[in-house]
Amino acid sequence: MGCDEQLLKRIDGAAEDFNFPGWECGDVNAVVGAMRASGFDSAAGKALVFEVFEYSLQESFIQGVAFCFATFETTKWGGPTDGLRLDVSSADVGGPGLTFGEIKVESNGRAFSVPIEKEDLAKKGYLSDEAASPTAQAVLLKICETIPKEWLFCPDEVLKKEFGMPDDVRRIFVVDEWEHPSYMQLYGDEEMRPSDFPDIRSMVEAVCQGLERPNLTQTPNTSWQQQCEGELIDE
Fold first, then answer.
1. pLDDT by residue (tens digit) across 113-152?
2. Can you tell me the distance from the alpha carbon of 69 to that of 64, in angstroms, rounded to the nearest whole number?
3. What is the pTM of this model?
4. Which residue, 112, 103, 106, is CA-closest to 133?
5. 108: left (phi over 0), alpha (psi -120 to 50) or beta
6. d(CA 182, CA 141)
7. What's the Cα-to-Cα distance from 95 to each of 26, 102, 104, rounded to whole Å?
8. Helical ranges in 35-117 per DSSP H
């Protein structure tokens, strides 16, 4: 089995097991704020890593999650990363709760201040005008806007350690904008596969051939504005 076929089979297999990240707007599990895809090359094989920065509805955390699909052995297939993780559970259940003002967060070893102001959040469509306090969704989107992506997502060494990649592995490309399937396209009535999306196939082809730039031809949709704008979650 060739590299392309092997990676696509693992990616589609993960989707069949409900373990491939689809873009979510609070449909079931999460609200996604941003995504990143990275290709890795090693003498032992190839890997494609998808990172998702999300608000988990079930865990009430804003966090990064990564999924690794490789032709070599890894220590795990995916899960939360060691980057930013913020408890946004309400005070009613013993959490810190959310208030307007400034939030201090740390992402991949660097501290950031994130301004959470009602007028700004409402103007950008992150929050309704009637909201009495910020929602976790609004905080997620403001964090994505404030923190540069090189700090929001994981550096090479973190991903290598996270998945137990070979010592000689190197990241050959990073993609922040591409056409990615939504949760409902994958797991709803459409029952599409990740391999049905040309940009996913192009990234697999690029990593297998050791290319530094995938040939992405579709309209990018990996931002909240493109996928979910207007879909606000009341909390």
1. 999 999 999 999 999 999 999 999 999 999 999 999 999 9
2. 17
3. 0.95
4. 103
5. left
6. 18
7. 20, 17, 16
8. none
